[in-house]
Design a protein that fits this description.
This protein is of the alpha/beta class. It has two domains: 4-247, Alpha-Beta Complex (Spore Coat Polysaccharide Biosynthesis Protein SpsA, Chain A); 261-323, no CATH class. The chain contains twelve helices and eleven strands. Strands 1, 2, 3, 4, 5, 6, 7, 8 and 11 form a nine-stranded mixed sheet that branches. It has a two-stranded antiparallel sheet with strand order 9-10. The protein starts with a strand and ends in a 7-residue tail after the last helix. 42% of the residues are buried.
Length: 330
């Protein structure tokens, strides 16, 4: 029976981490370990974690290294055949691991098994929104870069052999260690190291990405999380493009501009929800300049996104005039 190592990086998550751990302990698949990585958390998150007395839980402490650094530490301490990451504010449905283990057991060439995700808010309530990749099979490096079918770090379960195939050594923190996620791409207010890792797996190994068409992960959207920093996330993705170009120039030549267009369009949608019409229109125009074919490939979503950006942009001056205080003439 395959063992699953569940790695939970913890930093400032005392409001959510108990529900996160409970969702793992409630899994129908019980042959697992939980590796909690205290990434120098300044709040009471680890005190909350210590309340759980299950023998399958172990806590690793380190100075703050950010999300990729915590994931790397977790992998080094993991003993399972399969590895899964769960952010400390996300939740799994009880049957998640059972279904992924079955998928991997029955699909020997699949290295990354992922699923749909449902969005929940800060209170844990469903928002009605989902991450549902358009493709679950036949996923190419270009598709990984353009669309990131895995969606988020809490959605995937990965064979341990996959990480052995992509590991490299670095002395970033003063000691030579094995690395899996590239911590040199760490960004303080955004993170694209998971996309870079999935992309490197797709380019440098024979392992396939394949999805399960069910929402088994509950992805929490909160105003203070990495997901709230739309423009910073775009910067982080540009670093991924630059790195990948350095070792796979032929692949990047065919998909770099396409990928940038899709990333820009995604950022535009985020900016619209944040009410920034000026920047949204600017980035939407950049998306079309990089790859106008996005209008033909996904006309509905692209036109809707552009229209929303332009409407918001047109309303911005009107809103300014309406809200401008009247000048006293007395």
């Amino acid at each position: 029976m395959k063992k699953v190592s569940v790695i939970i990086p913890v930093y400032n998550a005392e409001k959510y981490v108990a529900a996160t751990i409970e969702s793992v302990l409630s899994q129908t698949y019980e042959n697992l370990e939980i590796v909690i990585v205290d990434d120098g958390s300044p709040d009471n998150s680890i005190e909350v974690c210590k309340r759980f007395k299950d023998s399958r839980i172990k806590i690793i402490r380190q100075q703050n290294r950010g999300l990729p650094g915590a994931r790397n530490t977790g992998i080094r301490h993991a003993s399972g055949d399969y590895v899964a990451f769960l952010d400390a504010d996300d939740i799994w449905l009880p049957e998640k691991l059972e279904k992924h283990v079955e998928h991997l057991n029955n699909s020997p060439t699949v290295g990354i098994s992922f699923c749909y995700s449902a969005f929940i808010n800060e209170k844990g309530n469903y928002t009605g929104l989902y991450q549902k990749p358009r493709k679950l099979y036949d996923i190419t490096p270009s598709y990984v870069l353009c669309r990131n079918p895995v969606g988020n770090g809490s959605a995937a379960v990965i064979r341990r052999e996959v990480f052995e195939d992509i590991k490299f050594q670095d002395d970033l923190h003063g000691t030579v260690e094995d690395y899996y996620f590239d911590e040199r791409l760490r960004h303080m207010k955004a993170d694209a190291t998971d996309i870079e890792c999935w992309l490197r797996i797709s380019i440098q190994t024979h392992w396939r990405h394949e999805g399960i068409p069910e929402a088994l992960t509950l992805y929490r959207v909160n105003s203070g999380g990495l997901s709230a920093n739309a423009l910073k996330q775009l910067e982080a993705l540009e670093k991924v493009v630059e790195k990948t170009r350095s070792y796979a120039p032929d692949i990047m030549a065919n998909c770099e501009k396409v990928a940038r267009a899709y990333h820009l369009r995604y950022t535009v949608r985020r900016l619209v929800t944040m009410g920034d019409g000026v920047t949204a229109v600017k980035l939407f125009n950049q998306a079309l300049a990089n790859h106008s074919g996005i209008l033909l490939e996904e006309p509905g979503k692209t036109v809707l996104t552009g229209s929303a950006a332009y409407v918001l942009w047109l309303l911005s001056p009107l809103k300014s005039v309406i809200s401008k205080p009247a000048v006293s003439r007395s």
